[in-house]
Amino acid sequence: MTTASPQAAPAASRRSVHQGPPLLVPVLVYVALTIAYIAVNASTPQPTASGADVLRHNLDHGGQVKVGAFLLIASATPLAVTAAFLYRRLRTLAVNAPGNAIALAGGVLAASALTLSGMFAWTGARLASDASPALARALADLSFATGGPGFALAFGLFVAGVALPGLIGRLLPRPVAALGLVIAVVGVVSSLTFAVYGFTYLVPVVRFGGTLWLIATAALLPRTRSRA
């Protein structure tokens, strides 16, 4: 019968690890739904379009708008799950790292913004032919506000909540963490769209750049860390 050496237990303790939930699965589902939404809504009128143009588009492409609304709302679920998983992962890797709560709150707010945007778009698609163009424009504005600069601002907070502990705790490569902080700043600045329409060009920078950053982060963030 073999007896374990006294050093075996400490060595095993040093090799013990904590493992967080997978990240790539919800991230890739979110990406797939986002791409599908963009493809379906390629012909959506710009925020500067008249109410009559918006109403006409909704009447002519009501089914398409509803499918897009569904995809947008559906994409909110994996984004919220990603935020929860990232929060758990960061707690596992660096229990007291700053930004953990910001990541969770930002992710939930971003997912809520997508849900509201989809609901406003779906409501607009149900307008009758005798509806007011002003109502169609108002619903489109609400959909854009929540899914555009509103989402970008919340998503920026989400990214900052991950990038900051990733940088401080050396959980992410420095360039990746630094890029995340840049995206977070752009997300905050994009909220100026509510005051000056010219800042709207920053919204797709946050949406697409942030999505690519999220994929990289999900792939690079370690799942385990040894405990001494």
Automatic annotation (TrEMBL):
The keyword Disulfide bond does not apply. It comes from the Bacteria. Keywords: Membrane, Transmembrane, Transmembrane helix. The chain crosses the membrane at residues 23-40, 67-87, 99-122, 142-164, 176-199, 205-222. This is DUF4386 family protein. It comes from Actinomadura harenae. The lineage of its organism: Bacteria, Bacillati, Actinomycetota, Actinomycetes, Streptosporangiales.
